[in-house]
Amino acid sequence: MLTGVFLALFGVGVLLHSLSILLFWTPGYILVHVMELKLVEEPELERRFGAAYAEYRDRVPMFFPRLWRKSESSGAG
Asked: What's the pLDDT score for residue 77?
């Protein structure tokens, strides 16, 4: 959901030919929300759901989906 907001804000900057939106407001908005997610939401979810959330957080990317799967084992064979 936030990725869509980030892209929409960037798009508004492009449509309005606004360098201030593109260079200051969009990155600032992204920075504030990433900090809020890391400092407020993630600790709350981990407190609420424990190890299940920690495992989920490690498997699922925060904003952009992975185009390939993480390998479960790092050794061959």
From this structure: 46
Token reading at 24:
């200051």
Which of 25, 67, 1 is closest to 11 using CA atoms? Answer: 25
Could you list the residue range(s) of the whole structural domain that residue 14 is in?
2-59
Q: Is residue 21 part of a domain?
A: yes
Q: Give DSSP secondary structure letters for 2-65.
A: HHHHHHHHHHHHHHTT-HHIIIIIHHHHHHHHHHHIIIIIHHHHHHHHTHHHHHHHHHS-SSS-
Does the residue 73 lie in any domain? no
Asked if residue 64 belongs to a domain, the reply is: no
The angle subtended at Cα 41 by Cα 54 and Cα 72, nearest 5°, is 25
pLDDT score recorded for residue 66: 79
